[in-house]
Amino acid sequence: MAQTLPVSPLALPLPPLGVVRGVRLGAVAAGIRYKGRTDLVLAEFAPGTTLAGVFTRTKCPGAPVDWCRAILPGGQARALVVNAGNANVFTGRAGRETCRLTAEAAAQLAGCTPEQVCLASTGVIGEVLPAERITTALPALHDALSDTGWEAAARGIMTTDTFPKAAVRKARIGGVEVVIQGIAKGSGMIAPDMATMLSFIATDAALPAPVLQALLSAGVRTTFNCITVDSDTSTSDMVLLFGTGAAANPPVAETVDALSAPELADFRTALNAVLHDLALMVIRDGEGATKMMSITVTGAVSDESAWRVGMAIGNSPLVKTAIAGEDANWGRIVMAVGKCGEPADRDTLSVSIGGVCIASDGTVREGYDETPVVAHMKGQDIDIAVDLGLGQGSARTWSCDLTHGYIDINGSYRS
Amino acid sequence: MAQTLPVSPLALPLPPLGVVRGVRLGAVAAGIRYKGRTDLVLAEFAPGTTLAGVFTRTKCPGAPVDWCRAILPGGQARALVVNAGNANVFTGRAGRETCRLTAEAAAQLAGCTPEQVCLASTGVIGEVLPAERITTALPALHDALSDTGWEAAARGIMTTDTFPKAAVRKARIGGVEVVIQGIAKGSGMIAPDMATMLSFIATDAALPAPVLQALLSAGVRTTFNCITVDSDTSTSDMVLLFGTGAAANPPVAETVDALSAPELADFRTALNAVLHDLALMVIRDGEGATKMMSITVTGAVSDESAWRVGMAIGNSPLVKTAIAGEDANWGRIVMAVGKCGEPADRDTLSVSIGGVCIASDGTVREGYDETPVVAHMKGQDIDIAVDLGLGQGSARTWSCDLTHGYIDINGSYRS
Predict the structure, then answer these.
(1) Quick one: which of A235, A83, A98, A65 has its CA closest to A156?
(2) Are residues A37 and A113 in the same domain?
(3) Which residues in A282-348 belong to E strands, given as ranges?
(4) A275 and A308 co-located in one domain
(5) Partner of B89 for a Cys bridge, out of A140, A267, B235, B320, CB 3.0 to 4.6 A?
């Protein structure tokens, strides 16, 4: 189980976390599945907090994903309830009922409507999540909420994660400083499709919900949607972004073009940095991971095509096991490019590892010396670059190696 | 390396192999990569032998795949040369030269043109395959060819395979008995896309090349194209079918509709059985496999859609590790259905394992008793059935579990 896993060798320490005015959080041990650790997180947001969200595109979403998708058009959030250990997925009417009861209980504590309560669950699929475990624990949890509860929250949402994940940045909007701070969980079943594993980000910026949504959707595209641990997309993925408005920055119009407006340039950069940090922490905690792969694909016919090639490399069990074995087996990269169905030409393709161009023009480079590549493979950060030689499309994706640790964790997750 | 791997617990013994009139085979140790085992196979076919072939759709095919694809329109084959240990892939001009020199040497021995010589190689990608190792070994190998050399050939083409693979069937065409006998290799990098790993099948039936081709292409679709070990498609996949004509069955017109002609019904059934047997042996020798998964998908919007769902289940690392851990974790099957992008509806989906319907109508079945399913999971043959409840499309696919053995084999293949 999660508690007994050794910490990932790629783990990063938590950054110094600050306060996001308008947000109070906390975590408690509700005994939903795990013993001797927190597994229920509550966050309360100031009145007027705006909401943006991005969700899994799975055809079998969990009940909390359905719930959040339904309330998202309201654009308002006052509370967030997250549990770990039970995903509340494929639980039918009982799962919907648990959502309703949980939202009602949290709404009563926060003084809002149930439609202003976001819900998220991850863990085992297909087991009924008993609402009373949550609703019984919520009042005491609510009493203990604190604006410094971020680390507790980051720990309380973990499942097979081996370290808590958080990121923070500051930005200016119209001369006023705002903060963006977020947490994430995720380690396996990671191949987000237009969404991610659980991540919750808050800012004290005052931004209309449609602006937040545009910034979040764009930012996720090049961060969470470019990572993969095992090609398996979760039924529970979501990223939520809350804007409390407590920073009282100059108003930003709902109709602004969020992706190009100059007054949001600094905020966009900071938000994307938070998303990038959190996404890469998920890879660094990939189940069983000992090495991280950064894959740069250039020369594709389009960015989309480059992304597909990058994900094919990052998802290939043969590439991932070669990385685990510190084997500069570039032929498997060629294999992954060839199989993925995207336009590619063996004879214009080039492959580099650790900055060394190994193969091009359909064969290995003359005089290729494996020595520096072998040295690079012994490190923790493996850089793979592929140029398809066809066009201007490019993408960057991230993955991790595939080791015995992944088998250990997933051959016995339920038992 | 291949020689030291323990034999798959799912291995099958070789069936009693017969002779295919018009075919003589043999194998020799040419020292291409492996030590102390055969690694070069030669087959010679009687004059007039017709040829059909199906190849990998990778964008980075090996030089032998290019060679065979180029000679296939000739529809004639007199010889086949196969080596194990070096795939001759991504080897540029040197790789093409090795193909030419090998075909010329074999043609001289068989008394034919180089364009009547089929070539195949599997093994490491990106290393030059020295032609002289092959051409030096061919004359003695040719002298020793025998019509009983099938087992030697089945062993000589193995790489990470742990057991040799062969299948045989008899059929009647116009009252005349013909035999269909084939061999295959393959264990990892198995996710054939309109083709397969290496498989060579011969029949003494007299059938025009276009008829053979139509039968082979159709047969591969529901056999080799429905298996996956690790979702990685090889650069070297091919199935070749040779018809020597030695059985002297009544002539079959080149223009016959091979897929419906009544005089070919028995032959079609027998050929498909050979393809089915060989494909499943590849799964039974999946790298590290301890259990075989048979996945039946029904109720899809089309057969193609059902196939994609079945392959998504068979490729999911989380499903495969659950099977390895004997965990009836049906939630991961739901996850795989949900992620694959095909039409599916959580609330019409049902999932069965070992013939027990576990979940339907969006939740677990009332009174579900895991006992018989747990017992089924302890066996070697795991049956998974998914009904999508949407239409009439169906498909059957096969996969194997994902174990420590796979990591062991692929974390150190080259070294």
Answers:
(1) A83
(2) yes
(3) 292-300
(4) no
(5) B235
Q: Are residues A148 and A191 in the same domain?
A: yes
A87: chain B residues, CB-CB within 8 Å: 331
Q: Are residues A373 and A238 in the same domain?
A: no
Q: Is B410 helix (H, G, I), strand (E, B) or coil?
A: helix
Question: Which range marks the domain in which residue A157 is found?
Answer: 2-284
Establish if A160 belongs to a structural domain. Answer: yes
CB contact (8 A) between residue B335 and residue A58 = yes
Q: Say yes or no for a CB contact (<8 Å) between B331 and A125.
A: yes
pLDDT for res B196: 54
Residues B211, B259, single domain; the answer is yes
- Residues facing B170 on adjacent strands: B179
Predicted local distance difference test score (pLDDT) of residue A414:
59
Task: Say if residue B265's pLDDT is above 50.
Answer: yes
Q: What does the pLDDT read at residue A2?
A: 41
What is the pLDDT, as a whole number, of residue B413?
A: 55
A109 vs B5, residue with greater confidence: A109
Cα–Cα distance between A334 and A346 in angstroms, integer?
8
pLDDT recorded at residue A411 = 84
- Reported confidence tier of residue A314, pLDDT bands at 50, 70, 90: very high
Partners of B318 on chain A (C-beta within 8 Å) are: 188-189, 230, 232, 410
CA distance A44 to B349: 37
Q: Are residues A271 and A122 part of one domain? A: yes
- Spatial distance between the Cα atoms of A209 and A240, rounded to a whole number of angstroms: 11
Angstrom CA distances, B53 to B9, B199, B202, B244, stand at 31, 10, 12, 15
Q: Is the pLDDT of residue A52 over 50?
A: yes
**Which tokens in the block code for residue B272?**
């498909």
Task: Among B268, B284, B300, give the residue marking a domain's end.
Answer: B284
Considering the domain boundaries, does residue A415 fall inside one?
Answer: no
**Please, what is the end-to-end C-alpha distance for chain B in angstroms?**
9
- Let me know whether B320 and B179 are in one domain: no
For residue B332, give the CATH number of its domain: 3.10.20.340
Helix (H) or strand (E) holding B239: strand B238-243
Residue pointed to by tokens 């009983």: B148
- The pairing of strands A199-203 and A176-184 is antiparallel
Q: What is the DSSP letter of B347?
A: T
Regarding whether B359 and B332 lie in a shared domain, the answer is yes
Averaged over B293-321, what is the pLDDT? 95
Residues of B with active-site annotation: 196
Instruction: Give the residue numbers of the binding site of B.
Output: 159, 185, 196, 287, 410, 415
**Residue B403 near residue B324 (C-beta atoms within 8 A):** yes
CB pairs under 8 A between A and B: 228
Residue from A1, A33, A57, A59 to probe the interface with B (highest B Cβ count within 10 Å): A59
In a domain, B272, yes or no: yes
- Residues A183/A189/A190/A192 CA torsion (nearest 10 deg): -100
